[in-house]
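Lecture 7 notes: from sequence to structure.

We start with a single chain of 494 residues. Read the sequence below before looking at the structure.
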Amino acid sequence: MKKAKIINLFFAFITIISTLFLFNQPVAAADKKVASDSVMKKIKQSKELVVGTSADYPPLEFTTSVNGNTKYVGVDIELAKDIAKDLHAKLVIKNMSFDSLLVALETGKVDMVISAMTPNPERKKNVDFSQIYYKPSGEYFLINKRDQAKYKKIKDFAGQTVGAQTGSIQYQLIQSQMKKSKAKGLGKINNLVLALKSGKMSGVVMEELTAKAYAKNDNSLMAVRSDLREEQAGNAVAIAKGQSGLVKAVNKTIKRVEKDDLINKKYLPEAAKYMKTAQKTNTMAKYAPYFVKGIEYTIIITVFSVLIGIVLGMLLALMRLSQNKLLHWIAVCYIEFIRGTPQMVQILFVYFGVGALISNLSALVAGIIAIGLNSGAYVAEDIRSGIASVAKGQTEAARSLGLSQAKAYRYVIIPQALKNIWPALGNEFITLLKDSSLVSVIGVTELMYQTELIQTSTYRGVLPLFIAMIIYFIMTFTLTRLLNYFERRMKHND
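Now the structure, written as tokens:
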């Protein structure tokens, strides 16, 4: 019993420390700021420039397939290449949702953001900007071609739903100047276009080049110049506060780009080349390697998350059933907290919150940890209910035979409980496989992330989603058959 008590105390200590660490991260992460001129020092030491972008905004930033591999292209990507060249660093692109970019910048996940970002007053409060490197001629409405006689001006959209990318200046313009319309924000441009084509929106507000790119590659769409008034027009590079040396270096590159007129002479023609290529060769067979890579990462995330969930769930279940009030209280608090908060928020918190203190925490590892921690809370309840379903006489009989409490649980109670809860555990594993798609929000290249890349590259919204649905079904169906097989084996061994 002394040994059991020592083990319990050890687990209690570990759990308390872990819990305090987890729950105190928001404060620590919020207070953590990138040290002055530290980014330039990091770039010089690592010889890498990490640039955050939302690669769904052609021709400024988008993706294409080259020999089965994803290639980031566009005006902003070409600018990033020149900045990296001038800094004598290797360019590393991190693709994520637009509304996550500034958070990633402030938490040190990226060195700068180049994503058609306008330096408005709200953003300037939190980050610094380079000088303007590109000034669009104005905002455009992307509409269905069948509605070209219906929607031309702001007033025409009265009572209608108008979309824009969440966190973008376009979304703010809709809210401030189209008050009779319903503003709808989505994280990805391709999802906005899909909503438009399916009739969920009457129009989408975009920059001129992006709107024309989508209209050119989809005959059912049309770009119409809007009458939206934009006081602060122009795109700039976003950089963390206090990085004067890096801002100066970026501005030096931008001045060279302006002097040589590289945007018109090099960047835009290069982007147009990839857009034409994509238009001619947009077959799903070409993007098979994307789906294969997505399946690979989805399986990796699922397997490791399951392992974390089982180990953590077992520990939490035993703690909740423990006579030790402290262990019981810790387990209850953890389970209720995890079950009471959205999994998406937990993923973002682990990556940006915990990741602010662990700078080398990759998106993949953060995603696995977040999903595993979430799964542990649900597995714990499944195991607890399974243990509770075993008759108390089983424990008493085991103890009467001379087994310690730990051995009684290991050899008698847990095996019986596992048989009772196997269907519930199986459902949790299947749910976990599907929930792995949530980590795409932090840029993990699992199946949903790859699907979004294909949507952006092909200008097709429904077909890539349908293929992804079929793949998820095949994986979940296979897993279900496998779990049913083990369930039959356990019943056979009774």
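DSSP finds 19 helices and twelve strands in the chain. Keep this in mind for problem set 3.
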